[in-house]
Amino acid sequence: MHQWVDFRSAAHATAIGKSLLGQLDLNARRDHLSRHRPARLTSRTITNERVLLSKLDAQSPTVPVLDLQEYAPGTVCAAVPITAGSSVGCLALSLPLEHAHRLRQAAHTLNRGAAPVLLSLAI
User: Fold this and answer.
1) Could you give all domains of the chain from N- to C-terminal order, each with its CATH number?
2) What pLDDT, on a 0 to 100 scale, did the predictor assign at position 28?
3) pTM of the entire predicted model
4) With contact defined as beta carbons under 8 Å apart, do 32 and 51 qualify?
5) DSSP code of 69?
6) What are phi and psi of 95, to 5 degrees?
7) Which uninterrupted H or E stretch holds 112?
8) Are 104 and 52 in contact (CB under 8 A)?
9) How confident is the model at residue 117 (pLDDT cuts 50, 70, 90)?
């Protein structure tokens, strides 16, 4: 995917950003959002901080985070959180909208592949 907005300013709209924000505690999330106010990037972007925080709280740490045209029209993305000690990260993929029907299966495959990556980080 073409990155057209600074990553920190788009965390609220991307699968990667939401995955990383979801691994932070509430104070760290609020700190980030106070420095990088959620801006509307597409008609699907969540800009309401309360709604965004609620969605992050509801996201299970074992389920991939999805971005359905929230960052870029015509693109869908998935990110899987990986944590090694106090370090957070994620694995992510993006697909053109015409392949959106493949996103859940691709995210599931990515999620299965995260364990070996996590293990290699721990060694």
Assistant:
1) 7-122 (3.30.450.40)
2) 94
3) 0.86
4) no
5) S
6) -135, 150
7) helix 103-122
8) no
9) low
The amino acid occupying position 70 is: E
The sign of the CA dihedral 89, 20, 17, 112 is positive
Amino acid 2: pLDDT: 67
Taking each helix axis as running N to C, give the angle between helix 15-22 and helix 49-58, from 0 to 180 degrees, rounded to the nearest 10. 70
For tokens 């045209």, the residue is 69
pLDDT digits (tens, 9 = 90+) for 76-86: 999 998 877 77
Tokens, residue 96: 């053109």
**How far apart, in whole angstroms, are the C-alpha atoms of residue 121 and residue 97?**
32
Residue appearing with tokens 């721990």: 122
Q: At 6, which amino acid appears?
A: D
pLDDT of residue 119 exceeding 80, the answer is no
